[in-house]
UniProtKB/TrEMBL annotation:
Pfam families per the UniProt record, alphabetical: Flavin_Reduct
Natural source organism: Bradyrhizobium macuxiense
Stated name of the protein: Flavin reductase (DIM6/NTAB) family NADH-FMN oxidoreductase RutF
Domain Flavin reductase like: 24-177
A molecular-function term among this protein's GO annotations: FMN binding
Length: 207
């Protein structure tokens, strides 16, 4: 591959394409379907495109919010949140919770979902989701560029303190990722991908 085979650009100067390829290149990405509660007791449920796991011990997950959204404000105030696995069966429900609505609107009701109280946190999980993580916030970090300039984005990290897994997806003591048919972000706005067992393969590390 030579230089003329490559589309090169510096992000600060624009990408020169019809759509910014950044999101499509960093794909697939898990969906951060985050439930939180504000100090007044109002519950929020929203999906986030930038989400992942970052540490085994303690188990830490995190999501990044562009602009200071309700989820981040709630979590800063209460120190708790719940992540819920978005699956193919729940795709339309998850998408419904992406609507921009007033702070006191219950997205669980809006999407036709059921709240189940957390065991260790005062935030409900999505009953219909096969996997949920109850989390205690560990850090909220405003992101910044290499030049130190602050970005309008906040990374919220939380320690997983309780895990709920549908036993139907545990076989011989092993959680079967593909059986849950999780959906992930696969590119631009609106692009998703369903993970199926037949699309998974195993590679053993050399060491």
């Amino acid at each position: 591959m030579t230089a003329k085979d490559l589309h090169f650009y510096e992000p600060k100067n624009g990408h020169g394409l019809k759509h910014d390829p950044f999101n499509a290149i960093v794909a697939p990405r898990p969906i951060g379907w985050i439930a939180s509660r504000d100090k007044g007791g109002n519950v929020n449920l929203a999906p986030y495109s930038f989400f992942n796991a970052f540490c085994y011990v303690p188990p830490i997950i995190g999501f990044s919010s562009t602009n200071w959204k309700d989820s981040v404000a709630n979590i800063q105030d209460t120190g708790e949140f719940v992540w819920n696995l978005a699956t193919m069966d729940l795709a339309k429900h998850m998408n419904a919770t992406a609507a921009h609505v007033a702070r006191d609107v219950d997205e669980f009701k809006l999407a036709g979902l059921t709240q189940v109280p957390g065991k260790l946190v005062n935030v409900p999980r999505v009953a219909e989701s096969p996997v949920s993580f109850e989390c205690k916030v560990s850090q909220i970090i405003q992101l910044q560029g290499a030049d130190g300039k602050k970005a309008e984005a906040w990374l919220t990290l939380g320690e997983v303190v309780a895990v709920h897994i549908d036993k139907a997806f545990i076989k011989d003591g092993v959680y079967q990722t593909g059986l849950a048919h999780p959906i992930v972000r696969a590119g631009r706005r609106g692009d998703y991908f369903e993970i199926k067992p037949e699309n998974m393969f195993e590679m053993i590390r050399p060491d």
